[in-house]
Amino acid sequence: MTEFPDFDLSAYWQEPDFLLTDLVSLMANRADSQMGVTLMVKGAILTGTLVGEREYLRRVNDMFKRMARETLTKPTKEDLASIDEAFGFDELIEDDYPEEGDEEETEDEAIEKANLREASPIRHLHLKDPIIIYPGSTLSFMDSALPILRIRLAAIDGWMLGRISVIADDDDDLPDVGFIH
After folding, report:
1. Which of 63, 61, 56 is nearest to 32 (CA)?
2. Cα–Cα distances in Å, from 57 out to 60, 64, 87, 131?
3. What is the pLDDT of residues 61-117, one digit of tens each?
4. Which residues contact 112 (CB under 8 A, 6 or more apart)?
5. 169 is a domain residue
6. DSSP string spanning 18-75?
7. Is residue 76 part of a domain?
8. Range of the domain at 100
9. 6-26 tens-digit pLDDT
C-alpha cells in the first residue's frame, strides 16, 4: 500500500486558484495580453481589465518619476538623470520570465529559474480601470493617478472572464465598458 505524505487541508483552501494564477502568469505577465475579468473578493464584486505586472510596475515607476520631477523648479540634466536612476520599480517583478532580447540561458540556468518559480509563485494580479460593483454604490477609479489595482491572488474567492458592463445613468460619469453578464 502506498503511503501518502500528511496533507494539511486548511492550507490547501488558502492557496490561490491555480487556474487563475496560470492565466495571470501566462497571459497577462508573459504574453502581455489584456482581458476583461470580474472578481469576487471578500463579498465585493470588482470588474476591470487584467494587465501584467510589468504594466503595473511601469505605471508606478512613471508616476513617481513624474511626481519627483514636479518638485524641481529648474531641473538640470543631472537632476533628471538622478530621478530616472532612483526609481526602478519596473525591475521588481515577482513572476520571473525572460523578456524579448534577453540573452539565451543555459539549460542549467533555465532549470534553476523554473525551480525558483515553483518555490516562490506569483502572489498578485493587476486590475486596470477597476470598478467596484458591489456592495453599495458603483465606484470607478479610472481617473486616479494610478488606475491599476494590485490584488493578492489568495484573497480572491471567485472569478470569471469578462468585465461587467456598467450601464451609466445620465447623471453618472461612469463608462459603459465590457460585456454584460
Report:
1. 56
2. 5, 11, 11, 20
3. 888 888 888 888 888 888 888 877 777 766 667 776 655 555 566 667 666 655 555
4. none
5. no
6. HHHHHHIIIIIIIS---EEEEEEETTEEEEEEEE-HHHHHHHHHHHHHHHHHHH-SS-
7. yes
8. 13-161
9. 766 666 667 888 999 999 999
